[in-house]
Design the sequence.
């Protein structure tokens, strides 16, 4: 009897321990390694945030760091970009409007890495910089990190370097195989604010439902970015019908829709109400360029460049359109955008040429 009793007791203990472990395993919830202590940021090194796992240069997002890409993207001297969102546990963003940035909670980090895959002479990959926008109690703040030559980490740009900005000389190959040597600009705090502001208040640009209402390939498959944010617990909800931008590369889309999406990504952050160039007569937000005068079609510029360049857009004639001229010149006093590029975006110019050439409006 004693032997049978002891055996039963041992089995009971084993079963209890095993069950307890199983229950604990079922209850285990992975914890993101990301550290964004608002009392301590900016950290000295990008690695201190733990946004990425493994080799940092591979840009593999850590748990709860969500990659994304807007429909149409800003041109920055042909740099490729990777973008990510991280939010503190238990917080959510809310939808405001199709053309307004999501209302992100305090502690949110927006991460954007700039890199090239055709650095000469050997077509190597080189990460140049990672820009952070982090939301504090008193608003969004900019933090700039410059990658080292070993591509193992990035150091905080601070002091006079962030106050004045700096440059990195690079040589790379364009999509048309032309070799370009240029001084890639690392922006100053003031330059960041020049583009990222509404009514002088720092604000993100691309994280609007109109730009995120598209499919993106995540590590577990292809999914709508907004739906991914909902499933991640980062977004409460969003409308079924969103007036959305498109990928300007997509030739299956109407030319006007592609061009309007392009100028929204590259021009609208300044040419909008309370933006840097609010005093100009044009409004280049995607939600407004369906009106000809907002887009500058047949609109006489407030600063006429020459007798042949008076209209912002002269329908059917891109060579007489100021928009085309500013995009195709590299004169620092004339080019647009004023910041973010040192060379002409050939494909963007070609897109605008096609759009203007397709116009049939007659100006009074």
Sequence:
């Amino acid at each position: 009897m004693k032997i049978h009793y002891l055996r039963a007791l041992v089995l009971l203990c084993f079963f209890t321990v095993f069950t307890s472990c199983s229950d604990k395993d079922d209850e285990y919830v992975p914890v993101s390694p990301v550290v964004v202590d608002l009392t301590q940021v900016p950290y000295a090194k990008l690695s201190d945030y733990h946004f990425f796992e493994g080799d940092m240069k591979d840009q593999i997002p850590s748990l709860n760091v969500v990659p994304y890409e807007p429909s149409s993207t800003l041109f920055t001297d042909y740099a490729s970009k990777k973008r990510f969102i991280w939010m503190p546990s238990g917080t959510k963003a809310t939808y405001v409007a199709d053309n307004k940035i999501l209302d992100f909670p305090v502690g949110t980090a927006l991460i954007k890495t700039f890199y090239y895959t055709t650095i000469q002479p050997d077509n190597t990959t080189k990460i140049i910089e990672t820009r952070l926008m982090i939301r504090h109690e008193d608003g969004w703040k900019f933090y700039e990190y410059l990658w080292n030559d070993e591509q193992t980490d990035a150091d905080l740009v601070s002091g006079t370097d962030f106050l004045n900005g700096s440059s990195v000389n690079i040589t790379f190959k364009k999509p048309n195989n032309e070799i370009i040597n240029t001084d890639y600009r690392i922006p100053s705090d003031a330059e960041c604010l020049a583009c990222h502001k509404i009514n002088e208040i720092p604000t993100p640009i691309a994280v609007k439902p109109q730009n995120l209402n598209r499919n993106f390939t995540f590590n577990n498959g292809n999914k709508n970015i907004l739906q991914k944010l909902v499933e991640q617990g980062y977004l409460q909800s969003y409308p079924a019908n969103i007036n959305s931008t498109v990928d300007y590369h997509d030739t299956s889309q109407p030319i006007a829709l592609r061009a309007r999406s392009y100028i929204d990504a590259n021009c609208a952050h300044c040419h909008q109400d309370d933006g840097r160039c609010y005093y100009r007569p044009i409004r280049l937000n995607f939600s407004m360029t369906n009106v000809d005068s907002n887009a500058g079609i047949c609109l006489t510029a407030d600063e006429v460049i020459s007798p042949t360049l008076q209209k912002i857009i002269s329908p059917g004639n891109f060579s007489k359109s100021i928009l085309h001229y500013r995009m195709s010149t590299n004169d620092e006093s004339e080019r647009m955008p004023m910041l973010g590029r040192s060379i002409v975006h050939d494909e963007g110019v070609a897109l605008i040429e096609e759009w203007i050439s397709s116009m049939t409006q007659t100006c009074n």
In short: Residues 199 and 234 are 27 Å apart (CA to CA). DSSP finds nine helices and 14 strands in the chain.
